[in-house]
Amino acid sequence: MTMNTQGRPTTPVSGTQPHEAETVSGSKGLYQFEPLIFETDRWGKTGVDLPKAKRKASRMGGVERKAKVDLPGLSEPETIRHYVRLSQRNYAIDLGLFPLGSCTMKHNPRLNEKMARLPGFSDIHPMQPQATVQGALGLIEELADWLKTLTGMPAVSMSPKAGAHGELCGMLAIRQALLARGEADTRKRVLVPASAHGTNPATAAQCGFIVDEIDADKRGRVHMSHLREKLEKTDDIAGIMLTNPNTCGLFETDIKEIADLIHEAGGYFYCDGANFNAIVGRVRPGDLGVDAMHINLHKTFSTPHGGGGPGSGPTVLSDALAPYAPVPFILKDENGFRLVEETEEEASESFGRMTAFHGQMGMFVRALTYMLSHGADGLKQVAEDAVLNANYIQARLKSVMTPAFDGYCMHEALFSDKFTADGIETIDIAKALIDEGYHPMTMYFPLVVHGALLIEPTETESKAELDRFCDALQAIAAKAAAGDESLKGAPYHAPMRRLDETQAARKPVLKWTPPSPEQIAAE
Fold it and tell me: In this structure, are residues 284 and 152 in contact, taking their beta carbons and an 8 Å threshold?
């Protein structure tokens, strides 16, 4: 895939920092200064008083610890304050708009959390007898029915635990289908558009396929002439991995023709469904000729990015790939729901098992709650509002920033850095946005756009919040266009100033080392 080789300085330019009043405590207003937790352990104390243990012969066989554990000793109030102060440095969707593109960091309804904590969902164990978890299995099956209906696909694997895991599921199903056809050794080439998600070529390569890139055209979509040229020159096509809407925030208008061309060439069509939230309720991928597509439950159906924990990436499959779905999967008979665990009988053609157990229950409960709360018409409005909000941002900002492509966008607005003066770069705009109280948008991605700024407002933001964000970004963009050097030193108001990110990435300090006696004496 194309690599961005553009170098950029990451150290603040001297003389660009405005005067700031220093404080004796290190704190500034409600922002409390907080050192590392190890640095608060100045006296080797402990927050709990315990009687000394009666001496008995050691049962450690000579491998007991000789030195101190070297864990910090804090009281309960000190411990709580430490983590509360750290939390004040963190940005969150409950704090403000999260403009990350292609990530869908949207509000997670609290009703979903309440349902996920119900007994029978939150406290079950995967090794319980299946007769004791019939309600949970029924919920998974109902969610699967919703996913099949929304996508127009006949089958779905609920096992994958994240988006990339879902990609792997789809591509393994394609590989198994080629094995069944006796063509696994002759069909090794997978076409991947330049505008696809970065995990797509990695997944194809992991499955043993050769990755062949397809160019993007001037509209930011698949270059159809290049695609036809590839198909005419080779007969080893296994399939295509295409993101739709793509990473440029655009719907692939030739999607049906692409599917037909791939099928005529004997390949399968894998669609990356990470951006399904832009079309849910509006377009059924099955109608477009898709053979496999993963769905990020933790994006499309709330709990953004797994809520800091596990995600969930069910993969829908066409009739051509359904027999090769992984185990376990659910079947219903006269005795209720049961899990098919082995690759025999009903699962004799399965490519095998991807994970120890059957998906992630908390994500399943949240997703189904979201679906039932919205209903079919509500999910359609979710997609419409996401697209409306992104186009509103594009309309508000296009007078001061440069849209990467002409026309309307889908769920995310993409800008290039053409509007900036010499010396001002995308990273400077992103750092200045921190001073305005926002997490930066996605920068320098997708790689097909120079200095990209990718903004996804999601459907959950009000017009007032969008206007606040646009006002801030407009002011920063005006400074960038004017070549304002103060941007090179931003952020000024964040707990940490701008770092040399290149050195931080190449030479990270991953372990705290206590100061030497000489350092302590010098202080």
Answer: yes
Residue 22: CB atoms within 10 A of its CB come to: 7
Say which residues have a Cβ less than 8 Å from residue 98's Cβ, sequence separation at least 6: 91, 105, 106, 304, 439, 458
Q: Among 23-32, 90-99, 235-244, 497-506, which range has the highest average pLDDT?
A: 235-244
SS3 385: helix
Nearest CA to 198 out of 286, 103, 284, 288 is that of: 103
Q: The pTM is what?
A: 0.89
> What's the Cα-to-Cα distance from 287 to each of 154, 167, 211, 256, 291, rounded to whole Å?
12, 20, 26, 9, 10
Question: Are the beta carbons of 347 and 159 closer than 8 angstroms?
Answer: no
Residue 43 pLDDT = 61
Contact 304, 104 (CB under 8 A): yes
pLDDT bucket at 5, cuts 50 / 70 / 90: very low
What's the token pair of residue 69?
A: 């554990």
Q: Is the pLDDT of residue 239 over 90?
A: yes
Domain 376-497 sits in CATH at 3.90.1150.10
Q: CA 182, CA 176: separation in Å to the nearest integer?
A: 10
Q: CA-to-CA distance for 418 and 127, rounded, in angstroms?
A: 57
CATH tag for 111-370 (out of 3.40.1010.10, 3.40.640.10, 1.20.120.450, 3.30.870.10): 3.40.640.10
Q: Positive or negative CA dihedral for 440, 441, 447, 450?
A: negative
d(CA 186, CA 268) in angstroms, rounded, equals 14
Distance of alpha carbon 311 from alpha carbon 162, whole angstroms:
5
d(CA 40, CA 82): 9
Question: Residue 14's Cα: distance from chain center in Å?
Answer: 36
CA dist., res. 503 & res. 449, Å (int):
25
Average pLDDT over the chain, rounded to an integer = 90
Judge contact between 469 and 130, C-beta under 8 A: no
pLDDT, tens only, 41-88: 766 677 677 788 787 777 888 888 888 777 888 888 888 999 999 988
Tens of pLDDT, residue by residue over 470-515, are 999 999 999 999 999 999 999 998 888 888 888 888 999 888 887 7
Q: What are phi and psi of 454, to 5 degrees?
A: -110, 120
User: Which ranges in the chain are annotated with CATH 3.40.640.10?
Assistant: 111-370
Provide CATH 3.90.1150.10 ranges for the chain. Answer: 376-497
Nearest of 27, 436, 412, 29 to residue 220 by alpha carbon:
412
